[in-house]
Amino acid sequence: MPRRGATLTRGIDGCQCPGQDGRVTTATEPTQAVCCSPLQGAPLSAEDAQTLARTVKALADPTRLRLVSLVAAHGGEACVCDLTEPVGLSQPTVSHHLKVLVDAGLMTRDKRGVWAYYALVPGALADLARVLSTP
């Protein structure tokens, strides 16, 4: 009986390609590795990956996604007082979620008297979609 994990390590050296019969074969010599496709674009740098991860983490919360949608539905700008009731959370909790979105570069904050108004950063969501859809 092979030791645990031995069957896995045999298949990861080289390029794994589906054959014409649908089964996966492994090419271990460079001349056989023609099935591996080259990179189609530049991969993310470490710094860009950090920035993207922070943005994606900010949007990974259902409340924050709703807040982005609500601000967009208000014409791209909304007062925090208009956002508390639709999400069913207190003003401090909503403000915390909005701060996370501001820190991620998705929104801006403008203080007007006692209220804070939040606006979508023009092009931020389009830029995110472009990065995520680039091969």
UniProtKB/TrEMBL annotation:
A single GO molecular function term of this UniProt record: DNA binding
Keyword terms: DNA-binding, Transcription, Transcription regulation
PROSITE patterns, per the entry: HTH_ARSR_1 (PS00846), HTH_ARSR_2 (PS50987)
CDD domains referenced in this protein's UniProt entry, alphabetically: HTH_ARSR
Transcription regulation among keywords: yes
Pfam families, alphabetized: HTH_5 (PF01022)
Domain of life: Bacteria
Domain HTH arsR-type: 44-135
Matching PANTHER family: ARSENICAL RESISTANCE OPERON REPRESSOR, TRANSCRIPTIONAL REGULATOR, ARSR FAMILY
The name this protein goes by in its record: Helix-turn-helix transcriptional regulator
